[in-house]
Design brief:
- There is one protein chain.
- This protein is α+β, with helices and mostly antiparallel strands and 418 residues long.
- It has a domain of 76 residues: Dna Ligase, domain 1, CATH 3.30.1490.
- It is 36% helix and 28% strand.
- The chain contains twelve helices and 18 strands.
- Strands 3-2-1-6-11 form a five-stranded mixed beta sheet, sandwiched between helices. Strands 14-13-12-17-18 form a five-stranded mixed beta sheet, with helices on both faces.
- β15 and β16 form a beta hairpin.
- α4 crosses α11.
- The radius of gyration is 22 Å and the shape is globular.
- It starts with 6 loop residues before the first strand and ends with a helix.
- 44% of the residues are buried.
Length: 418
């Protein structure tokens, strides 16, 4: 077992920004941490360059963005980091559910870890294209003989063990390009984590996961969706639409620059035309030497609402396709920078016919409010979740950063879930 670092670091490489969060382990032993035993000590945010919709398109530019973000976090924390947990997303991500079955060889014997390993091996024995790799195997439930809904079968008696799992795969080259960019920045990758899974760590309660909820993470270049039910992940998908489209629509519609359009979206934007103030008028800077002109807030809302409706309709279609439209008892949780657009919650509630809330991270307890209150914002849910994911891995002593064995990596993730 290798040396353990005193800090846990999350690295969220998004389409619009790169975020690095350093959290220090406080109190207790490594195996018996307090519930809120992490304290955020460093946060770095840099403009993202060289990425498009979660994929590397310019390696050197991406490396520079990562370095700037990490350096800012290290300066704030007063330390250097070595290993990071990296978020992974993009249209190249695919997922599906699988089922595994194995007999228990000896009667009247307790189910042990070898039986669990064997049944999940049968569930992951699926045909994959040569250019794809498994990044997550998430157990949903175990079935011992005819008894279903079991979260942990260890120690139980039975003659037949089954498991339902959710398998997430990614393009091998796309994932390797992300890892290469991180390595060229002087860092090691502890693990790659699907971004909506990480965000769920930070903002979803256990009740929401059990009753059924839909996590919608609206990033800059993409929207991540994860459906939870009975405590497990049932469906994940990445939709190639995000907050950047709002900005581009404003820039084209109002003939202004991208930075000005971004500012207008944040300060004056509204996703529902009926909520806009018809009497409110603001100046919009022109492109080049063109003079600024006055624009009513209702005009801006008319540009934003169709795009917001398009994103919500795509989310609704994914929920229906997965068959969980009537099983999301806890409703929808919005997170990501795109969720901050005023009126988006009301629009989503109207289209989806479900309760909708904005998800904020509460994983660090009161220390979060004292040290870095900005982490409460939905735009930092993924990087916060990456750190919490790393903490859970750390507690179970399942560090395999330098292992080339896919099975060891799988066992590490499975044990942490149990």
């Amino acid at each position: 077992m290798g040396r353990r670092e005193k800090n846990i670091v999350g690295l969220d490489i998004g389409s619009t920004k790169v975020c690095t969060l350093i959290a220090a382990v406080r109190g207790g032993t490594q195996r018996n941490q307090l519930e809120n035993g992490l304290e955020p000590v460093g946060l770095g945010v840099a403009e993202s360059k060289g990425l498009k919709r979660g994929a590397i398109v310019n390696l050197e530019a991406a490396v520079e963005s990562i370095k700037k973000s990490v350096h800012e976090a290290e300066t704030m924390a007063g330390c250097e980091v070595e290993t990071v947990y990296v978020g992974l997303s993009g249209p190249h991500v695919r997922s599906f559910n699988s089922r595994g079955v194995t007999p228990i060889p000896t009667r009247s014997r307790e189910i042990d870890s070898e039986d669990v390993r064997r049944v999940i091996e049968t569930a992951r024995a699926v045909a994959l294209a040569p250019d794809r790799e498994i990044i997550h195997i998430l157990p949903q439930e175990f079935i011992v003989d005819d008894q279903d809904g079991i979260g942990d079968p260890l120690g139980m008696f039975g003659t037949r063990l089954e498991v339902n799992v959710h398998i997430v795969t990614s393009s091998t080259t796309a994932a390797q390009n992300i890892i290469t960019a991180v390595n060229r920045s002087g860092l090691l990758v502890g693990d790659t984590v699907l971004e909506p899974i990480a965000a769920g760590e930070a903002i979803l309660t256990e009740d929401e996961k059990e009753l059924g909820s839909v996590l919608v993470d609206i990033g800059g270049g993409k929207t991540n969706l994860a459906i939870y039910h009975h405590g497990g992940v049932r469906h994940t998908v990445v939709v190639p639409l995000g907050g950047e489209l709002f900005t581009n629509d404003i820039a084209v519609g109002l003939r202004t620059s991208i930075p000005e359009a971004e500012w207008l979206k944040r300060e004056q934007g509204c996703a529902v035309s009926s909520m806009a103030d018809n009497d409110k008028v603001f100046e919009v800077a022109g492109v080049g030497s063109r003079h600024p002109r006055a624009v009513a807030q209702s005009v801006l809302s008319d540009i934003l609402q169709p795009r917001a409706e398009e994103i919500v309709h795509l989310v609704r279609n994914e929920i229906r396709a997965a068959g969980y439209e009537r099983q999301a008892g806890a409703g929808v949780v919005l997170t990501g920078g795109g969720a901050m657009l005023r009126g988006f919650v009301e629009l989503a509630e109207d289209i989806l016919d479900m309760p909708v809330r904005i998800g904020t991270s509460t994983g660090f307890g009161e220390s979060l409010l004292e040290k870095t209150p900005q982490l409460m914002g939905p735009e930092f849910a993924t990087v916060t979740g990456l750190v919490l994911y790393g903490e859970r891995r750390r507690k179970t002593h399942d560090f395999h950063e330098n292992s080339n064995s896919g099975f060891k990596k799988f066992v590490s993730k499975f044990r942490s879930l149990l």
